[in-house]
Amino acid sequence: MSIQERSDETTRQTREGDCEHQTADLRYWLALLHTPGLGSRGINRLLGFSGGDPRPLFGAQHPAHSGLRQESIAWLRGPDWDQVEQDLRWLEGDNRTLLTLRDARYPPLLREIADPPPLLFVQGNAATLEMAQLAIVGSRNPTPSGQQTALDFARFLADAGFAITSGLAAGIDGAAHRGALETMTPTLAVTGTGLDRVYPARHRDLAHRIAEQGALISELPPGTPPLPANFPRRNRIISGLSVGTLVVEAAQKSGSLITARLATEQGREVFAVPGSIHNPLARGCHALIRQGAKLVETAEDILEELSPLLGTLLKVPLEKPAAEAESTPRRWDGEYQLLMAALDFDPTPVDLLIQRSGLTADAVSSMLLLLELEGFVSAAPGGRYCRTGKMGTEPL
């Protein structure tokens, strides 16, 4: 064997040894994750006893076992290694990573929160976790204009250099992810399930696109179903990864308000989009504004607030969202003038539009269809319609 061949063989053996050592370490991290009766707080408390290394926690005796439930102690003395092997098999797939709290690649902002997840499962490009992130969250059942607002804000802020982070939920979350994907900028989705599952199922294609262009993230091991208790917990990760959280449409009792509260507790900025006083989905945002969240009307309001904090991490936006870029109002004539005057930014029933405008039901129905297709009117639940932000107010 030549000198070069011996050198290559030594390098190969060293790499294999490092890989085996790393896998052995991960086994103990994963075994700790599966310990019954411990959440992330319990795991972090135990790691505090062992200097951040999970290995010493396993065995017959350890001071950290004091005060634990019997089922937890029994597991630490004899873990079910088959469960750990299932996780390791999932990690063998393409673009799959497991980050521990001791990993240099673990997101530094997330490490700062009071209750950081000990482990992060990542599907996609783990390097995207190092980007400056902005969270966009909101209602699962938004109005069409709210959904468009989330998409426009995400597209604009992604162009500015932010990775958009959300929770893959229906409604505002999905719109935020799609807005970022349109710019070919990474977007990150924090899930409330194991990464071998997609919830809701209709976002399966969206999840695949996110994994290709950014990353799916979970603190939960593969196989974890969408249990209700998991989703409020994942919200602290969404806010913890991000320099700020934007709420677009949220009811007064909403998971989005939990995310906003956690962001405040973590010392991060909170932004809220105001809405109509008649829109139930605006009340959560109005409550946040009363509590000190920053009212934003355009994505530039967020950039102005955060740019001094981030410096050169952000780039100059390529273009404004279409709704902001349009400057020439559409000129209305005849009956369209009457109908546009009857429309509000609040959702209005068709019967009231007929009464206000004095037009026939057939005429109003036909004109609303055309106005909706052109983006001047948005349909709301209950057969109601409202104006969008698109300009079109001047008569001939």
UniProtKB/TrEMBL annotation:
Occurrences of domain DprA winged helix (ranges): 324-383
Highest taxon of the lineage: Bacteria
One Pfam match: DNA_processg_A
Boundaries of every Smf/DprA SLOG domain copy: 98-306
GO BP of this protein: DNA-mediated transformation
InterPro entries in alphabetical order: DprA, DprA_WH, DrpA_SLOG, WH-like_DNA-bd_sf
Record family assignment: Belongs to the DprA/Smf family.
Protein name (Swiss-Prot/TrEMBL): DNA-protecting protein DprA
Organism the protein comes from: Sedimenticola selenatireducens
The encoding gene: dprA
